[in-house]
Design brief:
The complex is a heterodimer of chains A (about 240) and B (about 500).
Chain A (H helix, E strand, L loop, with lengths): L1 H28 L15 H14 L1 H6 L1 H20 L10 H5 L1 H24 L1 H6 L2 H22 L5 H12 L10 H16 L7 H4 L4 H4 L12 H8 L2
Chain B lengths: L32 H6 L10 H15 L1 H9 L11 H6 L6 H16 L1 H5 L11 H10 L8 H5 L6 H14 L5 H13 L7 H19 L14 E4 L10 H14 L4 E2 L10 H4 L3 H18 L3 E4 L3 H15 L10 H7 L10 E2 H10 L15 E3 L3 H6 L8 H13 L30 H22 L3 E4 L2 H10 L10 E3 H8 L7
Parallel strand pairs in B: 1-2, 1-3, 3-4, 5-6, 6-7
Helix pairs in contact in B: 2-9, 5-9, 12-22, 14-15, 17-19, 19-22
Amino acid sequence: MNTLLAILFYLATLLFVVGLAHRIRIYAVTPAPLKIPTTPAPTTQAGVVFRMTREVVFFESLFKANLWTWGLGWLFHASLALVLLRHLRYFTEPVWAWVAFIQPFGLYAGITMLLGLCGLWARRLLVERIRYISTPSDHLMLLLLIVIAASGLLMQFVSHTDVIAVKGFFQGLMQFSIQPLPADAILALHLLSVAVLLVIFPFSKLLHAPGVFFSPTRNQTDNPREKRHLSAWAAKMESEN
Amino acid sequence: MADYTAPAYRVIPIIPALKPGAMEGKGPFVSSDKINEALGFPGHLVDDWHDKAIAKMGELLGKYRSLRVFLDACVHCGACSDKCHYFIGTQDPKNMPVARQDLLRSVYRRYFTLPGKLFPKLVGARDLTREVLDEWHNYYHQCSECRRCSVFCPYGIDTAEITMAAREILDSIGYSQKYAIEIIGKVHRIGNNLGLPGPALIDTLEGLEEDVKEATGIDVRFPIDVKGAEVLLITPSADFFAEPHIDSLIGYAKVFHATGTSWTLSSMSSEAGNFGMFIGNYDQLRKIALRIREAALELGVKRIVVGECGHAWRVAYSFWNTLSGVGDGSDPTDRFAQMLQKQLDHRYKQPTHICEFTWDMIEDERLTFDKSLNDKHIITFHDSCNVARGSRMGDFAGGQFEIPRNIIKAVANHYVEMDPRTTREQTFCCGGGGGLLTDDLMELRVKGALPRMEVLQQVVDEHGVNFMATICAICKAQFTKVMPIYGFDRRMVGGVHQLVSNAIVLGKNN
């Protein structure tokens, strides 16, 4: 069982890293031939960094769009960030001080993450417009995240697992040695779901995470009159004349 | 015209229930072999349209980062779902921006992504069939590329970019829209969208000089093809003869006259509009923009000023420097751009919007107004989508909102704002932008205007507003046609420079 899980995690991580790097490379090398920031837009590079920060940290545009979606979405993402940081303790020895400090917060974040996800799913099911645009994969994605969050919480609050052994397993993986893992169904479900999430990440709508940084309407400086912007394929048209 | 009735007003803000299939149909007229072929497109739908369309999509994915990222990044959160004026007006769910994007995204997933190839049903991927193609033609001509959805999307996904890509694919397989293609043909053949030939233009301008002389007693000139003039004015051709556009043209001329600015129009390049943007075709966009470069070089002007036109200003402000070198800051080794940029006077922004020009003159106290001459008007301002969300004026973000309002307040006493959820960056499109200002889309235009009409009615009821100023030729044309259907006087809509023209005091500084 733990050999199988170990192999699975190696493969999933490989797919995640290679797949994501490949995708990001495509975004980076594809030219943006025209200046298309959604205006009013920052007129300086520093302004763009500020705009992008507001977008990524506070979901500024979503806030303007719909308070419910913003509230639930932000709750989920902020909780997820805390939960992920909390999990660093399984990969570091000794555990960094700030990671130790956030442990209790990360715990509550697990609960708020689950709440956020359930709220988002309720929206997807109950609001006519959102239901109309939802594909089966949209529902399954939420289900997968709910399984991950719920199984994690179960191990914390209901059926404890041997976290020392779990840590040993992942420390081992990082040094390419396979250590024993507790034979625990909930743990297996938790880890399996995370591996699935890693695998589908580079092929699915989860690409919104790297994608937002490459969005020309958000990352371009509004200075077209001051500086000539020319992509390679457009420049070629000029030399042909 | 009598066939169209105005939909009923509703309580604002509005999130309408879905009416699936409400706007199903054939879409706009398909263009003929002759006009297609003149632009280098196939005359009619090619036999191998399926393979050609997929190949074109692949080509565009490699050329436009926007398309590539936007097709991947959408999470179906629904933030945009109630933001499109065509959705609010028609209730057709396929007019929700996300659903409109999905018409193309579903095909992208099927042919360009692994999950779409393996599990199409699961991820909402579908084969490109004739039905899908027809659906594209219909629904991608129910988008005015106004970018309102892009304001609200957490990833900045701009449906306009998707619509442009879809239209470009359709054009490349011979399934294009008659109206837009016909107009682009006219620009190349004659020099402007309306097909107004040089002699007719000169005639019209002479007539205008006589009219203004009669009305004011002053010789305001409308010069054309004057070599060595300081300013080249590029304005939408509707300004030359359509009502109320022409009143703004008179306004520009009076401002130039009162400030002693030497200016000229160009008969070769008598069009600010650029429908190349609407069909998403870089090549056409560029070819049309190059006419302005050519005129500027030929006439030796120092400044290029653009008249009241929404998408034209987006193209001029955001794209001209890229396309034709009208602007500043080109590389010293960039001979193409340097050739023109050396000629232009960089104490001024290149290009300059006519509102920037006028506002600078007002700030310099070089214009005098009798505001009481506009007292019969209680004015509100409709921000035009392409100006609001695709361009800027002045030196600071948001100048495109402040400068036209400042001008109105400088020339008139009564000014009222509409609901802030529908102005500035959140403004609604007039319902006729993006290449949809054609009679074969009249039902869509009437319904698409509904969101604006609803908020206009509010300020009419509460403040007695009787004039809606705007700085876009398409807005002016769309509203004069659609507003009577909603029970408004068509003369309620007009340009900012129409108000300038009403109040300007001539003959003082001269």
